UniProtKB/TrEMBL annotation:
The keyword Lipoprotein does not apply. Keywords: Membrane, Mitochondrion, Mitochondrion inner membrane, Repeat, Transmembrane, Transmembrane helix, Transport. It is found in: Mitochondrion inner membrane. InterPro entries: MCP_dom_sf (IPR023395), MCP_transmembrane (IPR018108), Mito_Carrier_Antiporter (IPR051508). It is a multi-pass membrane protein. The gene is SLC25A35. SUPFAM superfamilies: Mitochondrial carrier. This is Solute carrier family 25 member 35. Solcar repeats lie at residues 1-90, 99-192, 202-269. Belongs to the mitochondrial carrier (TC 2.A.29) family. One of its GO terms (cellular component) is mitochondrial inner membrane. The lineage of its organism: Eukaryota, Metazoa, Chordata, Craniata, Vertebrata.
Amino acid sequence: MDFILGGGAACGACLFTNPLEVVKTRMQLQGELRSRGTYQVYYRNVFHAFYTIGKVDGLTGLQKGLVPGLFYQFVMNGVRLGSYAIIESAGHIHTDGRVSALKTTVAGALAGVVGAVMGSPVYLVKTHLQSQSTSSIAVGHQYKHEGMIHALKAIYRQHGVLGLWRGSSAAVPRVSVGSATQLSTFSSSKELVVDLQVFPEGSWLVALSAGMISSVVVVLAMTPFDVVSTRLYNQPVDLQGKGMLYNGFTDCFSKTLKKEETHIRIPET
C-alpha cells in the first residue's frame, strides 16, 4: 500500500510542479559548456522563463513532458518511499529507540537507487520532451520526439534496451543523494520538532515543518547532481549510443565546472 500511496501522492504533486520542471530543465541547459557572456540568454530568471515559454511555446509548453513525468513520479517515488517504509517499519533505522542519522541516510540512499534505476527510461524521455522548444528559444540538444511512446520506440530502435537506461549513471547519484538527504533530514527534523514541543505530537504541522526543513537541505545537496543528470540525459549521441559531449558523470561534472566556472542552477522542485 505504501508503494501505491507514495506514487499516487507524487503524481498529484507533479500536476502542479511540472511547469517548474520545464523551467528548471531549460535553465540547466542554457549556456551548456559556454562561459558567461558568450551565449544568448533566453531565460533570465525563473519568472522570465515562465513568461517566455508561455508566450513562445504557448501555455501547453509549460506542461511538456507531463505524461512521462507522471509515470516517473509514480514508479520512482512509489518504489523509493515504499521501500523506505518497509525498512522503517522493520526497525532498521533506529538505535536504542532513537532515529539513527547514519541508518536513515543509508536506507534512503538505497531506496533512492532502486527507484532511480526503475524510473530512468521515462526520466530520459521526460528530459528530452521538456527541453524541446521553438527554435527561437531552444537550448540544449533538440530531439523532436512526438510524445512518450514515440520517444521510447525511437530510442529502443536505435540503441536497444540499454539505450533506454542511458544517463542512469547520473540518475543513481542524483536520486540517492536527494533521497538520503530528504528521508534522513525528514525523520530527524520531525523528531526535533517533537522534542522542542513546537507543535503537539501527532499534529500534521509536525510533518509539514519537517518537510519544509528537509526540502531546503535537499535542494542544496541535490542541485549539482541535478544539473549533471539533465545534461547527460539530454546530450546528443552517436550511432553507437555514445554521448557526444560527455563520457559520464565525472566528465560532465568536471567540464561544467571548468567551462562555466561555478555557476549554480538551483532546481525549484
